[in-house]
Amino acid sequence: MKTKDSTLYRFLTASSLAILLEVMDFTLYGYTASILAHRLLPQSVHAVDFIWLIFALGLISRLIGTLIFGHIADRFGTKLTLTIAIVVMGLSTAGIGCIPTFSQVGLMAPVLLLVLRCLQGFSFAPEYNSISNYLSFKEDFKHHYTLACSLTVFFGSIGLALGGMMMTWVTQGSSLETLSDWYWRAPYLICGLLLGSLSFYLRLQMENIKSEKQVKMPVMSVIKKQPLPLITCMMLMGLVGILTYSVAGFLTTFLQSNRGYSLHQALKVCSSNSWLIACLTLLGAWMSDRLDRSIVIRAGLMMMVVIAPVSFFFVNFGSQNQVEWAVIGLLFLLGMISGPLPAFLSKAFYPEHRYTAASISYNFGMAIFGGSTPLMMTKLVTIHPILPGLVIALLAALVLLLHRWVWPSEAHINHQVLLQQAYR
């Protein structure tokens, strides 16, 4: 029993560190967008737009990783999948910290950035669902399954906060022109080499988990048997992606270009309250274990319909204090709805294609919606300042209707899975 417990804790630690590493890296990229544009691209009005395009392509590369890693995990187990993923992730993250500037190697700098970002997106594909899929085979967590699965989002939130805190600290008293080159490189190197090595060591000792029932093509299985749940979960994760990269990406550059904030001020506003997500994630998961995951998710979607437009109004027209409260409003929405999601994604699908289905939901949603968020928000805000908030509200209302139609209750989800198991 002691050996099994130690194996479980090593797995949870390794997965938590891997998620922290990935989210911190994507956060660093969002917060350093203007720095990367200044150092790695030729100077032009659209340099930041190219940085966001590379960001989007990096997220889209997750789709390839989803199909490959999801298939390997459902067919052969999670150990090989997650070990390969953490090696690629750690090396590509550290690699970004070593890219020469544009003045040194010319166009090779943005090319290297694109390649490394795509490798990062590819390698993160299996990470988000690793804990929830692993624990779905463990009866010990039956009564606090959602809370245990929320470690995924909790450590992701810590990564979001740490990334912002690191960049706020290194940019203090500096501008784009005066910031030391190694100041923005050091966080990438620390994340990639230190956290990546520790996670790799722990992954080598983890237990291999896979479903007893095997299907040759998990992707075709979920498309054939559960198409509507797949679409709904993709849209749900898309909303999370939009909120995440609005705060950790778009708003950082928007406040500098449209509201006259300095780089340090923009980073401080967007990152200083990121710890709130971690607390709200645990609260939302705890409530889900005692009430119903569907109830908590729907409550978050209903609040999103109201709060998102109001937040974007104050981001555009409010005072500095009102801007900070607007960002807190977006972080509140993100924290409450994110807590129950890892467990919900896992339990929404049948065991034989669970890893693939949950990975597709997360990565397709984050790539299609989250990856395009900075570019999309930049264009929408030029049409009308509040339009980004209205688009979020409209999507939230649509997902709420779909969620209510596909899953009338949490008991309905469990009933669907039991019927499928009985049928087999």
In short:
This protein has helices spanning 2-31, 33-40, 47-76, 78-96, 102-105, 108-124, 130-135, 145-149, 151-170, 181-203, 218-225, 227-258, 263-271, 275-290, 293-317, 320-338, 341-347, 354-370, 373-383, 387-406, 410-423.
Looking at this protein, list some descriptive labels.
mainly alpha, globular, 21 helices, 424 residues
Report on this structure.
The C terminus is likely disordered. This protein is 80% helix and 0% strand. It is mostly helical and 424 residues long. It is built from 21 helices and no strands.
How does the SSE layout of this entry go?
Blueprint: H1 2-31, H2 33-40, H3 47-76, H4 78-96, H5 102-105, H6 108-124, H7 130-135, H8 145-149, H9 151-170, H10 181-203, H11 218-225, H12 227-258, H13 263-271, H14 275-290, H15 293-317, H16 320-338, H17 341-347, H18 354-370, H19 373-383, H20 387-406, H21 410-423
Helix pairs in contact: 1-2, 1-4, 1-9, 1-10, 1-12, 2-3, 3-4, 3-6, 3-18, 4-6, 4-10, 9-13, 9-14, 12-13, 12-16, 12-18, 12-19, 12-20, 14-15, 14-16, 15-16, 15-20, 17-18
Output the radius of gyration.
21 Å
Number of distinct helices? 21
- Extended strand count: 0
- Unreliably modeled segments: 415-424
Succession of helices and strands: HHHHHHHHHHHHHHHHHHHHH
Shape: globular
Helix share of residues? over 70%
The N- and C-terminal alpha carbons lie at a distance of 31 Å
Mean pLDDT: 81
Oligomer state of the chains in this structure: single chain
What portion of the residues fall into strands of 2 or more residues? Answer: under 5%
The structure class reads mainly alpha
Largest sheet composition: none
